[in-house]
Amino acid sequence: IGLQHGRQAKVEIARSLKFYERLFLKSCKLSWPDVCEQADRFHSYLESEWPHYLEEIEGVAEGAGVSLSSILALNVRTEIAFGMFSDGCTALGWKSSSGSFLAQNWDWQQEQKENLIRLRIRLGNRLKIDMITEAGIIGKIGINSAGVGVCLNATRAKGVDFGKLPCHLALRTCLESKSRTEAAAALQHAGVASSCHILVADPDGSTGLECSSADVVPIPMSSDGLVVHTNHFVKAHPGVEENIEFEDSEPRLKRISKLTTTAKADAQWIRKILEDEDGFPNSINRQQKKESTIATLFSIVMDLKACSAEVRMGRPTAATETLELHPHY
User: Fold this and answer.
1) Sheet arrangement for strand 321-325
2) What are the backbone angles phi and psi of residue 228, rounded to the nearest 5°?
3) Rounded to the nearest 5 degrees, what angle is found at the Cα of 52, between the Cα atoms of 51 and 53?
4) CA dist 140 to 75, 137, 153, 198, Å?
5) Do residues 184 and 207 lie in contact, with contact meaning Cβ atoms separated by under 8 Å?
6) Which of 26, 137, 154, 286 is least buried, going by the fewest C-beta atoms within 10 A?
């Protein structure tokens, strides 16, 4: 799996490595050798507890012709930065009589857009995965053939545990699960190494998982079948110190909560919610402007009962390409 990923996305992986090399140096004052040294601290844990992930990462590195430490660094970038990178995203899960939906705008540095790839994986247990990810990273946002989907919101809380599952590999674990219950149980058992919010859903609904290096706190569906989240914790995490990076995180959460009160739980209405520009440019549908280099790089709406997803690359009101994810390939 990893070997093909590395070979076919060799150009994108090389660009992605350059992008993060510059970003770590600028944001964290870490040289790339320092970044790789930090990433290597996860090696023994992954080798012991998640050897198939390490084997796949090794394959990506071999296929791309780069060091194992470099590809490992991409996959644990959240942990190395100790929450200093904040992908400013808005996500929702919505279950109703008409279906079960999972959706998100993924916001990140505009420069990284050209390094997004579609990754399709056929697992040995006959599950198939279809996801959008950054080249070189083996787990991100997508859907599997059991109708399990996963989304991600960055949060900023101090702490990292090198004996727990890195955030992006936790996303991959969800995509290797046959239900959201199985996914949630796996993450609660393993623990997640750093701060993030993972929204996992299946045809029966969605569950939010607010993660820190100290705990995994579930967010159940509301009475309306909803889970909505942006880039700050909404649950209590005793002893965990959070730093809210995006001042617009709370306004976006209030906005998406308001929009769902007048919308219907179907793909068409959810697409419209993700196009919302209230509070522009720091809106649900985010635009790069002036000193901020962050914008919506793709918008995804998953229909878990139909086991499919629509991905609009770029801002959803100015999509450069539309993809249909179908993990039953």
Assistant:
1) 226-229, 90-96, 99-109, 294-303, 308-313, 321-325
2) -125, 150
3) 90
4) 10, 7, 11, 10
5) yes
6) 26
